[in-house]
Each structure stands twice: as C-alpha cells, then as structure tokens.
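Model it.
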Amino acid sequence: SNLKYCKIKYQIQYYEELFYSFTEYISSPIEYLIINAPFPFKAFHNLLCFLPKIQHLSIGSLHLWGDIHIEYQLSPIQLKCLRHVSIYFSMIHFDEFEKIIKEFFHHVQILHLTTYYTGTYLDTQRWQKLIVYHMPYLRVFDINCQDFLEYDISCHDVVTEFNSSFWIKNKCFFVNQYEWNDQSFGGVIYSSGLYR
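Modeled.
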C-alpha cells in the first residue's frame, strides 16, 4: 500500500471502550495521520510502532478507559520523521504520557497539547527536563490545560512557575483564565508564542 495521508472519523457511545489489537509489527507508509474520534490510550504506544514514516500526527480525543495496564507492548521504534504532534486528551496522568514523549517524540518540532482534568501537566520542572533531554528539536510548545484547581492554588501561582528564566529565554509565554462559582474553581493555562 502507498497510503501516505489518512484521516479517520467515527462515533462511539459515551464511555464505550474501543479495542484495538496492535500486537505485531506492521510497517505502514502513512506520513500524515489524523484521528478525529476517541482513541484509546492503551493502544497509542503500539499504534506509533506501526508508523515509522509518520511526520504529522493529530488525535482529537485520546482517552483512557479502565486501568492503564497494557497486556502487550511492542518495543518502541525511532520516529525520525515525526515533526508535528497535536493531541487533545483528558484523564491521562502525566506519568503515562511522559513515557510516550521519551520513547517517540525526540524529533518533534511542534507540540500542541490540550488537557482536561489533569493538573499534573502543570509541573514546570518536568517540562523543562523533557524539553532539554528528550525533545531537543522542539520549536513550538503550545499547551492548554483546563482543570478544577484546589481553593488554595491560584492560576496566577501556576503561571508564575512557567515564567522562569528558562521559558523567557526560549520565548514561550503563558497566560491564564479562570472562573469561580460556588462549587468549583476552574482554571485554564495556555502558552503563547514561539519556542526557540
């Protein structure tokens, strides 16, 4: 097959778990993959192992159903062509996504992330280490975190952490929006500007 561009769209019932069986290496020629539908995080690692020529990856909804335990995980491959990644996800802990970054995102130049209800992504020290040691070619870092923050944590305090000399030197600036009502305190933190 010579398929280089693939765009997938489908609908499922809310909370319906999808099962993808990626248990053997199959080398796909796909260079541009866009999935505009819920895709299970459990299958994400193995999906990337099938795409040695991938350049552009966009997933509109990466989800974690059930526990994180993965029965069979293929050995990671180097994605030397992967330059652009855009992912929207919720309820996936930073620890799990960090493994993916370390294994597959070394050559990524543009990273767009949108996270919901996963405040763990607001750890500035972790991001600095990931960028310096595991994403040396990163030029654009665009992150949008939306979460309900605890009452004793303000968006302003979190944004201050992202305004350290590391981020300023690399021309990445962060802003915040928040809303407050009787039951919750919702915050949105997002980056703007070019990285490197």
